[in-house]
């Protein structure tokens, strides 16, 4: 079965189940056995037949028009990120999608890192850490300061968060951050679910980390945002930073992440 159709169906099911029936004008009571909206209720809101909607959720080989996707997004009250994810999984262009603004980017990001005096690193399409500066190595002690064997896989942010035991203490409020990172990664990879390398990484994480498996199944999607990031540093104690993520126009799958020191609250 097509991976994207499966993802589309599972995502719609998750969005339907999170929706409170009373918020959409449907009665609740002891006879309601379904969490959230029923399939026929979601179909009614979107103006399509229950059978057609069921086929979409089941991941069957049906072509869903942009108009139907638009109605589904509106009827299930999806956020902008969730709406973009819906259209991406359906392989359709959102007729109401905003045109992204173009940002300038340095010609050689890896070389730029050495000129940045605060922790900074370059992250790839599967969140591999492709390059980092001395300050990032010092901050992520026990991870980015370790020697890299020739030919070995680059460090990976998800493997660090979910598979390295010391990350649970190092990252302040680990479970909240880990849940959000999973949602950000799902949204970031929405156009690449059929790529074998991504499938292998997700399967590895699901097998090795019960928490990642649980968060991944929730189908939360969030855009990667800045904000405060706090860490329990092994030598410096509690430290805080403001995270800023930049994307080069010519290579939008790359992310330049900069951590600016902030006051510990």
Automatic annotation (TrEMBL):
Domain HTH cro/C1-type as annotated: residue spans: 11-83
InterPro entries on file: Cro/C1-type_HTH, Lambda_DNA-bd_dom_sf, MLTR_LBD
Taxonomy, superkingdom: Bacteria
Gene Ontology MF, one: DNA binding
Segments traversing the membrane: none
CDD domains per the UniProt record, alphabetical: HTH_XRE
Protein's name according to its UniProt entry: Transcriptional regulator
